[in-house]
Amino acid sequence: MRLNSDARVPVRWSDRLMAGRSTFGQRIDVRDEFTQSRARLLELLDDLAPDEWDRPTAAAPWTVRDVAAHLLGDDLNRLSRGRDGHSGAGPEPGESLPDFIHRINDQWVQASGRVSSAVLVALLATTTPQIQDFWRRADLDAYGEPVTWASPEPAPVWLDCARDFTEYWVHQEQIRDATGRPRPDVPDEVRAVLDTFLRAVPHTLGNRHEDTGAGLVVQVDGPERAENGAGATTATPGSRHQTNRAGRRSYGSITPRICGGSAPG
């Protein structure tokens, strides 16, 4: 949480939104989707055959077992750091944040190689309700840790929660793909994942200098489209957060716009 140096009170995302200074887009609450997705993850892991745990995944060189161990590590890290105020050693001198994250993830997965699949499932069943309770108690409008792919600045807690939701969702998809399991028919979850990932676009393209009128279009077909039937998101140069009756949203340096009907040509 960040403090306002003038008033000495916590700065909340909603205050910055009202002041027109939010760069993270409209607030979303994915906690219901997170809870449902975690339940499906436990069901999936509990149903895996012994040989399926050793199958390779798209997160190479990780196997299904490695991905599950990584998710357990994410749980333990989130609870230790976010709930209990404990943190381990940080990056080594000269080590970048991505390199640091890759190193500690690899260390955890390597150490977890001595843990059986049954123990992994049992531990995830223990941490899952604690993670859900952590997010249920969280003040989503407070500012917390940065979500680095969206901004180096502290992010609202609702975006941090959405970031974790997408992390677990992607890894569950990797396990399903590796074991030939079908994807559940849950368009609300996919819509929430896409909505969250689009928050990365302004930061990713923020330093690009395009001609006026240049834009980015994201076309979503099928039931994952927005509830109003819109299927395309168009990004054009923008400034600050704003929402108007046309459904136009500004995420800092670009403005995604939901377009009804067919996608722009």
Characterise this structure.
The chain is mainly alpha-helical and 265 residues long. It folds into two domains: 13-199, dinb family like domain (Four Helix Bundle (Hemerythrin (Met), subunit A)); 206-259, no CATH class. It has eight helices and five strands. It has helices at 13-18, 31-46, 64-83, 97-111, 117-137, 157-179, 187-197, 201-205, and strands at 143-146, 154-156, 216-219, 232-237, 254-259. The strands form two sheets. The protein has a three-stranded antiparallel beta sheet with strand order 3-4-5. A two-stranded antiparallel ribbon has the order 1-2. Strand 1 and strand 2 form a beta hairpin. Helix 2 (31-46) packs antiparallel against helix 5 (117-137) and helix 2 packs parallel to helix 6 (157-179). The longest helix is centred in the middle third of the chain and has 23 residues, at 157-179.
